[in-house]
Amino acid sequence: MQQKHYIFIGVIILAALAGIFSYPNYFNKGIDYLNEKLSWTLPHFIDKPYILGLDLQGGVSLTYQADLNLIGKESKKEVMEMLKDRIEQRVNSYGVAEPVIQIQGEDRLIVDLAGVKDINEAIQMIGETPYIEFLEQKTEEETQQILDKIKEIEGKTLEEMQKIKDWQTAFQNPYFKSTELTGKYLKVNGTKVILDQITLKPIIELEFDDEGAKLFEKITGRNIGKRLAIFLNDNSIIDMTGDGKIDKQDFYNPYAPVVQDKISGGKAQITGDIKIDEAKKIASRLKDGALPVKIGTPISQRSVGPILGQIALEESLRASIFGFLGILAYMTIFYRLKGLLASFSLGVYIVFALSLFKLLSMVPFISFTFTLAGIAGFLLSMGMAVDANILIFARMREELKAGRGYLSSLEEGIKRAWPSVRDGNFTTILVGLVLFIFGTSFVKGFALTLIIGNFVGMFTAIFITTYLIRIFLGNKEPKQLWLWG
């Protein structure tokens, strides 16, 4: 047996394994049948389902705009990455599988939650993640200016307010101003609930990371004898100096706890009139990650029902099947036996590509998700794979017309077609890379399937199809030339 036969057998075995990996249902049913009839204990082939995007299984897409007004330009990217990680951690804790969360532009975050049916539930699971801000007391002069401005605009319409100088000042907090310290510096695993040994009231203990500990010490150091507070979700002042002497206060109440001394060690406490269930809930949210910046409510939201997603999936599969059958018919009619062999290699291309997509979905830092755009990219790359075969066959016909033998025409056709196949596929791959780097989630799915499909398509066209023709022909010229097109 010649080397090319061994290569062919190896490709067939590899294609069979890829096909089983892509869709193991029938293989596993066969294993169950053998185990039942012969009392064997053969294991199932790994059955990892494809991850489907919300456009194929239904779900919710939310767009948030982060408030980066207090963030320096050089830190905005870092803060947005942290916001993305914290929200992903928050969503995962609710059991939502494979959320797609991405940053759009400078300050927007898109959250795609496949499988979530209730859009309000989705908003709640993200919005419940606390935003914590540490504030220090304003000077008496600053406070009085704001209080005077509040009194000045009292009872006036918006149009009348706008005629007053610095009217926006009235909407500021009269008593507290922001500091550099926010929930972004909290240690996720440093948050816990304990009980006060005297009052038996719950206390939420917080711990900052190294940078946060330095900021906390600096802030408390410059505010000795002054009031300091935590604002939780922008509307509650909570005691955080550890003395436990004050209950939760209203937003504008000036009675926040007074800092007695510089606090080092990077630890603080949330105390007050908090019920144990509420304390546990707050601590749980903080463990999942306090948001580094405010996001508010979604600026846009989109819901795809599961029925609509199922219809889209079925129609996509139907389009793929019809597309493959159409290619099979075209190649067989116009190129006869070698067109049939090219169609077989196209089948190998499909199982190889699908198995690669499934493998990518199992890689944690990639978690490839199939979307409608991804299926479109896959179908387009299927056409590119066939196009490579057509270029080779066209060059072969030119060589046959020039008087060459069939085997010689095959080799020369491959050699002459390769530059066109290479350039066509690599320019498409280059465009796919640009789309993948700069595009949004749906565009990325299209680009990734297009890139992978083009690489696999070149392999099947140049390697598998031509090897099949060589094996079927052997070292002899075909007697029925019309059958080989």
Number of domains: 4
Estimate the strand proportion.
5-15%
CATH topology name of the largest domain, in short, is Multidrug efflux transporter AcrB transmembrane fold
Distance between the termini: 28 Å
Number of helices: 13
Helix percent reads 40-55%
Shape: elongated
CATH superfamily of the largest domain: Multidrug efflux transporter AcrB transmembrane domain
Quickly name the level 1 CATH class of the largest domain.
Answer: Mainly Alpha
SSE class? alpha+beta
Mean pLDDT across all amino acids: 81
How large is the radius of gyration?
32 Å
pLDDT < 50 stretches: 237-255
Q: Find the count of extended strands (DSSP E, 2+ residues).
A: 11
Outline the structure in words.
With 485 residues, the protein is of the alpha+beta class. It has 4 domains: 47 residues, no CATH class; 71 residues, 2-Layer Sandwich (Alpha-Beta Plaits); 122 residues, Gyrase A, domain 2 (2-Layer Sandwich), CATH 3.30.1360.200; 179 residues, Multidrug efflux transporter AcrB transmembrane fold (Up-down Bundle). It is 54% helix and 12% strand. Strands 2-3-1-11 form a 4-stranded antiparallel β-sheet. Strand 2 and strand 3 form a beta hairpin. Helix 1 crosses helix 10, helix 10 packs across helix 13 and helix 11 runs parallel beside helix 13. The two termini are 28 Å apart. The relative contact order is 0.11. About 4% of the residues have low confidence.
Keywords:
485 residues; alpha+beta; Alpha-Beta Plaits; Gyrase A, domain 2; 4-stranded antiparallel beta sheet; 13 helices; 11 strands; 54% helix
